[in-house]
Amino acid sequence: MAYGTFISAMVTAAILSLSEAVRELRAAREELARRAVEQERLRFSRDLHDLLGHTLSVVVVKSEAARRLAPRDLAAALAQISDIESVGRQALTEIREAVTGYREGSLATELVRARSALSAASVRPVVRQSGAPLAPQTEALLGWVVREAVTNVVRHSRASRCDITVEAAAERVRLTVTDDGTGTGAGPGGGAGGNGLKGLTERLAAAGGSLTAGPAPRGGFTVTADLPAGGDQPVPPAATAPGTDRSPG
């Protein structure tokens, strides 16, 4: 009898322990699911901010350029309108990619777009790139930095020139975007605390990098990103973005 009671107690204890473990497992799974949803919402909100902020800024700038050009140079005005159509179509593609979670930035693509957006805003773009190849994650992050920084230059800086410099070494890569404008990089309440730059700061920190932003010593505004490079072979000439100056690494 005593032995049977002991066995029954052991079985009961095991069942209770198993039930508690199941409850803890369910709670852990629910917490993981909640965090995954929060992370996905954060990713999507960041991507949407980066995509739409840049696209709408370019559309506004090119629309203003088309309006100015129309009375005296219809062909140039129509070229600006054609660019607006292209920007809109590309934005639709990127938004679909953001929704499905497959959106990745491209440094080369963003450098080309930066030149176009700055030129349309009557800001002279000066782009220099040198050094080793970059890991895909690094390329993507730097592409986002270029997009956000150039968007802020176009929208807020009143600059006449913007320098974009990418310097990649074997282990680290540094990107700087400097304008000669008013020293404001993110609009009212901007600076390094602007929503776009704040989100990028968090992204770069998660990848072992850093991002700083603030007034430049000689006037204007500077955004500096530093990241692991993830490459050790020279970048072939074909990898240079069209219209980009490349010096030896």
Count of separate structural domains = 2
Shape: elongated
CATH topology value of the largest domain: Heat Shock Protein 90
Strand portion, in percent? 15-25%
The helix-and-strand class reads alpha/beta
Query: Number of helical segments?
Result: 5
CATH architecture level-2 label of the largest domain: 2-Layer Sandwich
Domain Histidine kinase/HSP90-like ATPase: 140-229
Keywords: Coiled coil, Kinase, Transferase, Two-component regulatory system
Protein name: Sensor histidine kinase
Organism: Streptomyces capoamus
What descriptors fit this protein?
alpha/beta, Single alpha-helices involved in coiled-coils or other helix-helix interfaces, 2 domains, six-stranded mixed β-sheet, disordered C terminus, coiled coil, Sig_transdc_His_kin_sub3_dim/P, Sensor histidine kinase
How would you characterize the overall build of this protein?
- There is one protein chain.
- The chain has 249 residues and is α/β, with parallel strands linked by helices.
- The protein has helices at 2-69, 74-100, 107-120, 136-157, 195-206, and strands at 124-131, 161-168, 172-179, 210-215, 221-228, 245-246.
- Residues 182-197 have a biased composition (Gly residues).
- Residues 40-106 form the Signal transduction histidine kinase subgroup 3 dimerisation and phosphoacceptor domain.
